[in-house]
Design a protein that fits this description.
The chain is an alpha/beta fold. It has a five-stranded mixed β-sheet, covered by helices on one side.
């Protein structure tokens, strides 16, 4: 049996600092005030939040961080800052729905 070789992939660092990273927050859990509370927390971490809104549905089980093309590293950093495990490219959201933001957070029940 051949030994297992582990390959380490070097991920690119974020191009934008937190103060230059804009995050739009969507409430996907139905709890009133959840998006504004999350926006306040993100602002305290240094991010810019151009706005909040309700997600198209209110039954997200998990919080999700999504990023526009070219901003994967910023998305991973935001997920780490928020202790979110699910990160991926925009899915089900148009770039226009982000109002100029590079990232989106959809708040889930957990």
């Amino acid at each position: 049996v051949a030994p297992v070789r582990h390959h380490h992939v070097k991920l690119a660092p974020p191009k934008l600092s937190r103060p230059k990273t804009h995050v739009f927050v969507f409430n996907g859990n139905g709890r009133q005030g959840a998006a504004s509370a999350a926006a306040s927390r993100l602002i305290s971490l240094g991010y810019r939040v151009p706005g909040t809104a309700n997600a198209s549905r209110q039954n997200y089980a998990n919080t999700v961080v999504m990023y526009r093309r070219g901003f994967a590293a910023e998305g991973r950093r935001l997920a780490q800052d928020m202790h979110v495990k699910v990160v991926g490219p925009l899915d089900g959201l148009s770039t226009s729905a982000l109002h100029g933001a590079q990232l989106a957070v959809v708040l889930g029940a957990s």
